[in-house]
Design a protein that fits this description.
This protein has 11 helices and 14 strands. The strands form 4 sheets. Strands 4-5-10-6-7 form a 5-stranded antiparallel β-sheet. The protein has helices spanning about 10-20, 35-40, 75-80, 80-85, 90-95, 100-105, 110-115, 120-130, 140-145, 210-220, 245-260, and strands at about 5, 25-30, 45-50, 60-65, 65-70, 130-135, 140, 145-150, 150, 160-165, 170-175, 185-195, 195-200, 210. The radius of gyration is 18 Å and the shape is globular. A hairpin with a 2-residue loop joins strand 12 (about 185-195) and strand 13. It has about 260 residues and is an alpha+beta fold. The chain is about 35% helix and about 25% strand.
């Protein structure tokens, strides 16, 4: 590790002021990714701004069929929250499948989506549920938030405050994981609501993406059989030592059919 200035503000205003006054400030949420990155010197911020003392970034609330989750909510909190489990069981299930107990009790919703790892779980839920990311500057629709590999629409010093999830009629998340890292080889989140059907895929490509062909088929018949004849083009999908693009294309179909079968 190398020398940097450490700050622990107690409110959002203090965090933003510190970030704005730094040469190269970095927000610290759960630290599950950024600490490793800093140890490897892939990131060398002048200032680390710890968000863990800011109560306004925590908490889960329900209002008018929308669940609002603070950016600093831990994965374990989302997985165990009674309202999330009752209203969006697919989201609770997803949070419970992230990493191991250490990661689930330290990692945060905001940190995960801001990092936008191609194999992270939360992006699939944010997109499939049509969520909105609320920052200190604006509200960003899910479809506009994730832009590319490890990239989002966030501007410098822009801070995620909370994410709001409309409650769907049905939802489910199916994850085929790497047994060592527990990251998603492929993860598929399916939701059905009055706004239609959404199918979002993580782990298979450089960034989360939707499958319009599957969405159209499920709009006609929300059943696993409706997806049986749909094949996924492997072009542009990830290919590495864990699995080829063709293998991931096959897994998308498997995970999507399982998610539809388990949706509730």
């Amino acid at each position: 590790m190398y020398e940097f200035d450490y700050h622990k503000p107690v409110d959002v205003a203090g965090a933003l002021e510190t970030s704005g006054g730094s040469d190269d400030g970095l927000f610290l949420a759960g630290g599950q990714t950024i600490i490793t990155v800093m140890k490897q010197r892939l990131a060398m911020p002048s200032d680390v701004i710890d968000l863990n003392a800011i109560d306004d970034l925590c908490g889960i609330r329900v209002k008018e069929d929308v669940i609002s989750i603070g950016a600093m909510c831990r994965h374990a909190d989302v997985a165990s929250h009674s309202d999330v489990r009752r209203l969006i069981p697919g989201l609770a299930d997803l949070a419970g499948k992230i990493g191991d107990p250490h990661v689930r009790n330290r990692g945060t919703l905001g940190g995960s989506i801001a990092n936008n790892d191609p194999a992270a779980d939360y992006p699939a839920a944010v997109v499939a549920l049509g969520a909105t990311v609320h920052t200190n500057l604006r509200d960003i629709a899910a479809g506009d938030f994730f832009t590319d590999l490890f990239e989002t629409a966030l501007k410098d010093s822009e801070l995620i405050i909370r994410v709001t999830f409309p409650v769907p009629e049905k939802s489910a998340y199916e994850k085929i994981l790497n047994p060592a890292s527990r990251f998603a080889m492929v993860g598929v989140f399916v939701s059905q609501s009055v706004a239609g059907v959404r199918v979002a895929v993580t782990g298979a490509g450089p960034c989360v993406f939707q499958l319009p062909e599957m969405e159209d088929a499920l709009m006609r018949s929300f059943s696993a059989s409706a997806l049986e004849k749909i094949s996924i083009n492997p072009g542009g999908l990830n290919s590495d030592l864990h699995g080829s693009a063709e293998y991931r294309a096959h897994l998308i179909g498997v995970a999507a059919r399982r998610a539809v079968t388990n949706a509730c």
